[in-house]
From TrEMBL, chain A:
GO cellular component: Rad51B-Rad51C-Rad51D-XRCC2 complex; Rad51C-XRCC3 complex; replication fork
Organism for this UniProt entry: Funneliformis mosseae (Endomycorrhizal fungus)
PROSITE patterns assigned to the protein according to its UniProt record, in alphabetical order: RECA_2
Location in or out of the cell: Nucleus
Name of protein: DNA repair protein RAD51 homolog 3
Species lineage: Eukaryota, Fungi, Fungi incertae sedis, Mucoromycota, Glomeromycotina
Automatic annotation (TrEMBL), chain B:
One GO cellular component, as annotated: Rad51C-XRCC3 complex
Protein name: 9512_t:CDS:1
Leader sequence segment: none
Species this chain originates from: Funneliformis mosseae (Endomycorrhizal fungus)
MF terms (GO), sorted A to Z: ATP binding; ATP-dependent DNA damage sensor activity; four-way junction DNA binding
Length: 333, 360
């Protein structure tokens, strides 16, 4: 009797799917759970208008680049969703990640989410010094606009100590971390941002079995989605780019090689928003390529010593070569 | 990967694992909970417990992974610092020097000054921390078999280096530099996986240099066949991961010297830029920003390798036909990408002491 599957019970279809989704498979599973646990297990539903109201309450995380915020729906990276940024090396993915880790801490009265951040570093690119630079610049900018003596001002030490960092060396570690993170998030309910830089690094190797890779990635996406919804946090993933050859059918047109986000087609479905970062005419560009509710647009941005910022076309070009290169001239003094 | 023997599990779970012939941690981690409960014939509650147990076990042995540290602690611990190049101007261009963790790539044409820079770093790494060193020796892995010449040049540099830094007068600098030659990919694999970890755990070494990373790969995978290229990609990935592991385990920077290769489609770039199709992210356009000097050369080993490294330093000579002495030969050093500093460049020259930034 106890091994009878849940699906064979005469329940309402919606309840049945919820039970299955929550991981209940046999009657035995149900017997082992108490009523309270059952009701906690999200067997309840909400209406669309309730969902809309809830979403309005969630304050997005600004990227410090107004154009990018606009592109992402007006105020920045949405909370409760997975946002993926893809880009070739050197496009500023890690910089954006660090900027978001700081910006998520902008307090409520300055229309920020006032949360904390987790940065999962797979590439070893999280540099505390650089994060400190960005934090200092952001704090200075915010303090300019607020009355001195305000208690809610951001404090450098607090900002830095609220960025939690974990270094991951292989995909098993990443999966294990996801299983443990649940507990960590319960202890730190104020975490509003989870950054993985980058999701691709460990999944682009060691896999002869592509089906296994897809399965693991799906499992990971499921965990991330669960975190995003249960703990109301923004999940920001960074993805690498890979080359795809476009073979030309015309004899007089050369074959072209294009950059495409790594991890394949099926992964592309996992994130809510996907943004590709690339160079065009020696300016950094960001293009929203996938979103359920936003228009596909392209915006310019730049990265300077303060962090991630809007692109200003009237930049002082003094000493600049191509591709944002700045010449360092040592003065004799 | 770990086995179950050392993990304490409920008897009925351990029994189920045994029955299902699960042997390693990966066997469990690579499956969804649903699949596990089917395969192991356990209730979902038991499966959850099993997964938690194993996740905890993996995490226990990895201090960098968990418990989560925070950025303030990282900042104050001083684990991430900059290794000086021994020249203030070059340090400024490079945003402080070489990052003391992760992989830094030095790329350039032949005779651009890559080896000179590496040898100089072998000396500066031995300086005290207050002066920008890391207080340790260096391992120099050479694929080019010119170790005798390297040693000779190092001796020359050491004499002048000691002259400048009194503090190192009585230290035997050359003893702290270990040279290893790896003539082919098999030896390279053996050295990196077996010899190097032992060497690093027995000596106080704070810098690993491999000169050059591309040489053996280019010989071993010299084909345009897709399956061979795929194999190459995989090996490159493994290599990159290995270096990152070494870097984190022994807390040292890994420097990879890279060669350049020709960008074949350079002539087509103009056409591509004229292409106004915004949905197309051209690979060639991306590569164009990597061009070395005035030539049409790009770092070897492709985009995949570029994804593996943390920062890239590019050295180039303006005009190779002008065999200049001193000032006439214009050399530039560019920090192409780094997580800690913007893209910057400047001019430098090489003399008997080593490399120096140019004062305008």
């Amino acid at each position: 009797m106890s091994t009878r599957p849940v699906s064979s019970l005469s329940l309402r279809p919606s309840t049945r799917t919820k039970l299955i989704k929550a991981g209940f498979q046999t009657i035995k599973d149900l017997q082992e759970t108490t009523l309270i646990e059952l009701s906690k297990d999200k067997v309840t539903s909400i209406s669309a208008s309730e969902a809309l109201q809830q979403e309005r309450k969630l304050c997005p995380i600004s990227t410090s680049c107004e154009a990018m915020d606009q592109m992402l729906g007006g105020r920045g990276v949405p909370i409760g969703k997975i946002t993926e940024f893809c880009g070739a090396p050197g496009m500023g993915k890690t910089q954006l990640g660090m900027q978001l880790c700081v910006n998520v801490q902008i307090p409520h009265n300055l229309s920020g989410p006032g949360g904390e951040a987790i940065f999962i570093d797979t590439e070893g690119s999280f540099i505390a010094h650089r994060a400190a630079e960005i934090a200092k610049a952001t704090i200075t900018k915010l303090n300019e606009n607020t009355v001195a003596g305000d208690d809610s001002l951001m404090n450098f030490e607090n900002v830095m100590s609220r960025i939690y960092v974990s270094k991951v060396h292989n995909c098993d570690e990443l999966i294990a971390l996801m299983k443990i993170l649940d507990e960590f998030l319960q202890e730190h309910p104020n975490v509003k941002l989870l950054v993985i830089d980058s999701i691709a690094f460990h999944f682009r190797q060691q896999f002869d079995d592509m089906a296994l890779r897809t399965r693991l990635l799906n499992g990971l996406a499921q965990d991330l989605n669960k975190f995003a919804q249960t703990y109301e946090l923004a999940v920001v993933l960074f993805n690498q780019m890979t080359t795809k050859f476009k073979l030309s059918r015309d004899y007089n047109v050369k074959d072209q090689a294009a950059l495409v986000p790594a991890l394949g087609e099926s992964w592309g479905h996992q994130c809510t928003n996907r943004i590709v970062l690339y160079w065009r005419n020696e300016v950094r560009c960001a293009q929203l390529v996938k979103s359920p509710n936003l228009q596909e647009t392209t915006v310019h941005y730049q990265i300077n010593s303060d962090g991630f910022r809007d692109y200003l076309s009237n930049l002082n070009n003094n000493g600049k070569r191509r591709w944002e290169e700045e010449k360092i001239i040592q003065d004799n003094t | 990967m770990e086995e179950f023997k050392n993990i304490e599990l409920r008897p009925r779970i351990a029994e189920a694992l045994k029955d299902a012939k699960f042997e390693t941690v990966s066997d469990v981690m690579h499956r969804s909970e649903k699949e596990l409960s089917k395969k192991l014939k356990l209730s979902s509650k038991d499966v959850k417990e099993l997964v938690q147990c194993i996740a905890l076990e993996i995490i226990k042995t990895r201090p960098l992974l968990f418990p989560l540290t925070n950025a303030l602690k990282m900042l104050n611990s001083g684990e991430q610092r900059m290794l000086t190049t021994g020249d203030a101007i070059i340090d400024k261009i490079l945003g402080g020097g070489i990052m003391s963790c992760g992989i830094t790539e030095i790329v350039g044409e032949s005779s651009a000054g890559k080896t000179q820079m590496c040898l100089q770093l072998c000396l500066t790494v031995q300086m005290p921390i207050e002066l920008g060193g890391l207080e340790g020796g260096a391992v120099y892995i050479s694929t080019e078999g010119n170790v005798q010449m390297l040693i000779k040049r190092t001796q020359q540099m050491i004499r002048l280096f000691k002259h400048r830094h009194d503090i190192l007068k009585d230290v035997n600098l050359s003893d702290e530099i270990k040279y290893i030659t790896v003539p082919d990919l098999d030896t390279q694999y053996q050295v990196l996986h077996l010899q190097l970890p032992i060497l690093l755990s027995r000596n106080k070494i704070r810098l690993v240099i491999i000169d050059s990373i591309a040489a053996n790969f280019r010989v071993a995978y010299n084909s345009s066949d897709v399956s061979i290229l795929r194999q190459r990609s995989k090996e490159l990935c493994k290599l990159g991961t290995k270096f990152k592991e070494i870097s984190d385990q022994f807390r040292l920077p890994v420097i990879c010297v890279n060669q350049v290769s020709d960008l074949f489609s350079k002539n087509d770039i103009r056409e591509f830029i004229g292409n106004k199709d915004d949905n197309f992210w051209e690979y060639d356009y991306y590569q164009r920003q990597l061009l070395v000097g005035k030539g049409s050369k790009i770092p070897a080993l492709g985009l995949l390798w570029s994804n593996m490294i943390n920062s890239r330093i590019m050295l180039s000579r303006a005009d190779r036909t002008l065999i200049g002495i001193g000032d006439k030969c214009q050399r530039t050093i560019t920090l192409m990408m780094a997580p800690y500093a913007p893209r910057q460049w400047g001019e430098f020259y090489i003399d008997i002491e080593g490399i120096h930034g140019k004062v305008n």
